[in-house]
Amino acid sequence: MSWKRVLYALFVVLVAGVAALSGVVAGGLAVYSAISQNQPFQPIVTQVQPSAPTTLKVSSFQIESTITEAVEKVGSSVVTVVGTLPGELTFFGLTPEQQVSGSGVIISPEGYILTNNHVVADTNEVVVILADGSELPAQIVGTDLYADLAVLKAEGKVPAAATLGNSDNLKPGESVIAIGSPLGDFKNTVTVGVVSATGRMIDTGQGYLMEDLIQTDAAINRGNSGGPLVNLAGEVVGINTLVVRGSGMGGDVAEGLGFAIPSNTARLVADQIIRKGYFSRPYLGIRWQQVTPRIAAAYNLPVEWGVFVAEVVPGSPADRAGLQQGDIITRIGDFPLDQEHAYINTLFTYSPGDTVTLEVMRDSKKLQLEVTFGEART
Has 118 been annotated as catalytic? Predict the structure, then answer.
């Protein structure tokens, strides 16, 4: 190949390379130009950097504002309940009267107030202290021992009434607010926590369980009993009733174990008390003793679980059904009486007037007795 041809070939390669490089540069400039015109790079970076802290601050502010608004919405309807216990006659004479206190929440413009039964039990006089410090006398309209609820009626004008929400919608982790008067002195104290769990069950030690309770870690102390548990919408979703400090075994002490009666239960009980003056439960008419495996083994009973009929009230539904002293009831309707089904709780799944079949052990023989429940006023 001649030197002229070599030079020509090198010239062609050089021209092609320059053209390719020019195309790349031109293409890159075109892309950069499009980005610069449509999606400026620098402004996007400027927006992203401060967005995270700004969002967090707004969210925190919104939560605080929501809590504040919920408290303002309910606060004026929360009351301190003060009851007077009569003196007791002792060997040394009549003891002085004593005062007990708890909390409550106004649920109607007519002055009806929800609180706990244990707050007003055995009192002969009740007054309520409103959020502004003024006092109103109140009457006990009715109570329900087993749900630990009571309805009072204030005598005078009340400032506001709270709204009862739907406790069935509560979810674990949801923020809630407890309002009440801990120790009777710190009126309308606000504490905030979450719904730790729903559907909790606690043994009262009196032959029945408190069922379907709301567990919360919102601080609840003596005096908070009867006060409202409130959601962030400012609705009452529970009535605070008790706190568990420990298991009683090993000296363990627990914190943040508060429990409230669901608002749906409270509404059911309150509506009937306001309408009828009492809350009715099904009535069987027996005096009874719980049977457990330990008791069954000690007395050589034919079953491990049930209730031993110690006495049948004459003329009662139990008497009419043919129950006898010494019988052991092992089933009520569809529910066996066992570790998971306490007698009282199982009985209360029915209503006055319901007819069910009792399964009974009598002299080691299994019987089926049909009974129609009466009505008991609790």
Answer: yes
Of residues 76, 101, 181, 225, which has the active-site annotation?
A: 225
Torsion angles phi and psi, residue 219, rounded to 5: -60, 125
Sign of the dihedral through C-alpha 99, 100, 104, 110: negative
Do the domains 280-377 and 77-154 match in fold? no
148 as an active site residue: the answer is yes
Instruction: Give the CATH class of 280-377.
Output: mainly beta
Question: Average model confidence (pLDDT) for the chain?
Answer: 84
Q: Give me the pLDDT at residue 203, please.
A: 87
Within a 10 A sphere around the Cβ of 315, how many other Cβ atoms? 10
Among 48-52, 164-168, 240-244, the minimum mean pLDDT is found in 48-52
Model confidence at 220, pLDDT cuts 50, 70, 90, reads confident
Model pLDDT, residue 185:
76
Could you confirm whether 354 is annotated as catalytic? no
For residue 90, name the pLDDT band (cuts at 50, 70, 90).
confident
pLDDT at residue 182, rounded to an integer: 87
Assigned CATH for 77-154: 2.40.10.10
Contact present, 322 and 263 (Cβ < 8 Å) = no
Q: Where along the chain do its domains lie?
A: 77-154, 164-269, 280-377
Check 77, 144, 148, 167 and give the catalytic one: 148
Fold of 164-269: Thrombin, subunit H (2.40.10)
Distances from the Cα of 57 to the Cα of 13, 88, 194, angstroms: 62, 58, 21
Higher-confidence residue of 93 and 49: namely 93
Contact 44, 36 (CB under 8 A): no
Q: How many C-beta neighbours within 10 Å does residue 207 have?
A: 14
Which one from 77, 101, 103, 118 is the annotated catalytic residue? Answer: 118
pLDDT of res. 20: 40
